[in-house]
Each structure stands twice: as structure tokens, then as C-alpha cells.
Design brief:
8 helices, 16 strands, eight-stranded parallel beta sheet, 303 residues, globular
Length: 303
């Protein structure tokens, strides 16, 4: 094979130069990571969750290390949509990468206020975090009820100018049902998985390691679960699937692509190695070259 293989992938009409993006909540808007590498090396930057007003997040301690991973109960702390539009979007506009804005809210109205504010911005896509607690339904997460998934997806699609990705929670009985509900609601793509609910206890202090008691488990520990769910979802829907959960290398990313993901997100690995995401992109390219393949699409869904 002569020349480099094509790394381009397409999500709902949006073309990414390569299939690697960041996982929301692990990268901010890239300002800190931009000191380590050129963000233009990524297919897309997925921002931290943005709400209609500033969220203070949960009390500390809210991060705890676990075997092969970490727990977090940050509580989606963010400065709100006004600061995001004035500060973060102009920063990201300086890079040749797609911008996907993660949107969070406690009610349908809160989601829609953010989506409407983003309508006239340069954001390329929206990722809707439906792991937020629905205050109208007693605090149950939107993403654990297929009827709620379809309803919020329809509402967001009516208001959005950009393609909509619904980020699915793994804390459900059957991920295929949730993926189909998002597709029925009009989602342009789905991303999965979000963190698994977990707990850690400090036996010396005889108390919970997190002030919130429970938190979201991420990192290498969840990769086998994430890979299985991405495989199931990609075979349940016709829309693109974005895979994430424990990806820390090009080899990990290739597994998710082979399972059916059209693109992948690197998250917790970036805390350990700020260059994890661009290294994963290079690792995919190296794999294609090593196997004499000319296009990354040749391995998507090949198993």
C-alpha cells in the first residue's frame, strides 16, 4: 500500500478527519489539553456538559480511584451556556476540528433552552446527556426509561439546528431498547456508554469515599461492558453509534470500531496521559497500515 489510509468518517452529514473524539466531562473544552497537543489532531472535541445556568456540582470528595478505573460524582459542574458561548466556542473555533457540545438539564425545558441558544452558533453537533435526573419524574434519569428517551429526543430534534447525538446510560436492562427509542425519537446518532453506577467505602474512616455515596465508574474496568453494549446497539439501529468506555489506546479504539462504532471517544485515559486521544488516532492509522488497509471504514462493524 502506498500513501496513508483514509481516516475520514461521517456522522449524520458531518465529516470527521478521523474517528477519535473526546469524552464529555473529561476534557473540558480543551483549553488545558491544548497546552499539550494541537486539538486539530482530533476528529472532534466533545465539550463538558453545558446547562442553561451555572451548576455548582456535588460536594467534595467527589473523585475516588478504583482498581483499573475511577469513580466520579462531579455533578456536571459547569459555568452555564452564557460563559460557554462567550469563552469556550471562540477558543475551539481556532482549531481545525469538529465541535460537539454536550447538553445537560434537569427537565425538558432546561435542555431546550440550551439547544435553542446553540442554534445560531458554530457548534457542529449536539450530544444530549440523558443520564441527568429528571426532576419532573422524581429524579429518575431520562436515559433509564425508553418512553422518556423517545420523548426528550423528539423535543430536542424539534428545537435543534444541528444533528443530535443521544448519549445513552448503561444502567439499564437492555441497551438495545434504549438505542431504538432514541432512533424512534429522531436521533441522528447515539453515543455509549456513559459511566456505570458504583460505590467505594473507606474502611479506615468507616464512611463512603464519595460525599455523594455513589458515583460513575469509568476507565479500563468498564471496557468489556462498553464493547458489548456498543456491539448490541450498532446491530439494533441504523443510525451511527459512537463508542466509548475504557478506551486508552489505538488497539482499544480498533476493537470498538470492529464492534460497529462509527467513531470513538477517549475519556478517563486523558487524565493519566493528556496525549491519549491523539495517540489513539495514530494507533488506528498504524493498525490500518500494518494490515494493508486503505480506509478506516473497512474495519467498522467487521466482526
Amino acid at each position: 500500500m502506498t500513501g496513508k489510509p483514509s481516516m475520514e468518517v461521517e456522522l449524520a452529514g458531518v465529516v470527521l478527519k478521523n474517528p477519535v473524539m473526546t469524552a464529555s466531562g473529561t476534557f473540558g473544552s480543551g483549553m488545558e489539553y491544548g497546552e499539550f497537543f494541537d486539538l486539530s489532531l482530533l476528529g472532534a472535541v466533545v465539550t463538558k456538559g453545558v446547562a442553561d445556568v451555572p451548576w455548582p456540582g456535588n460536594p467534595v470528595p467527589r473523585v475516588a480511584e478504583t482498581a483499573s478505573g475511577m469513580l466520579n460524582a462531579i455533578g456536571l459542574q459547569n459555568p452555564g451556556i452564557d460563559v460557554f458561548i462567550d469563552r469556550d466556542l471562540p477558543f475551539l473555533a481556532g482549531y481545525d476540528t469538529k465541535v460537539i457540545v454536550n447538553v445537560c438539564g434537569h427537565s425538558e425545558e432546561e435542555y431546550l433552552r440550551v439547544v435553542e441558544r446553540l442554534a445560531d452558533t458554530d457548534a457542529d453537533m449536539l450530544e444530549i446527556n440523558i443520564s441527568c435526573p429528571n426532576v419532573r419524574e422524581g429524579g429518575i434519569a431520562f436515559g433509564t426509561d425508553p418512553a422518556a428517551v423517545e420523548k426528550i429526543t423528539k423535543a430536542v430534534k424539534r428545537a435543534a439546528r444541528q444533528p443530535v447525538i443521544m448519549k445513552l446510560s448503561p444502567n439499564v436492562t437492555d441497551i438495545k431498547v434504549m438505542a431504538r427509542a432514541a432512533e424512534s425519537g429522531g436521533a441522528d446518532a447515539v453515543s455509549l456508554i456513559n459511566t456505570l453506577t458504583g460505590m467505594k467505602i473507606d474502611i479506615e474512616k468507616r464512611c463512603f469515599a464519595l460525599a455523594n455515596r455513589t458515583g460513575g465508574l469509568s476507565g479500563p474496568a468498564i471496557k468489556p461492558v462498553a464493547l458489548r453494549m456498543v456491539y448490541e446497539a450498532s446491530h439494533a439501529v441504523k443510525i451511527p453509534v459512537i463508542g466509548m468506555g475504557g478506551i486508552a489506546s489505538g488497539e482499544d479504539a480498533v476493537e470498538f470500531l470492529m464492534a460497529g462504532a462509527r467513531a470513538v471517544s477517549v475519556g478517563t485515559a486523558s487524565f493519566r496521559d493528556p496525549l491519549a486521544a491523539p495517540r489513539a488516532a495514530q494507533g488506528i492509522e498504524d493498525y490500518l497500515i500494518r494490515h494493508g488497509l486503505t480506509d478506516v471504514k473497512d474495519i467498522i462493524g467487521c466482526v
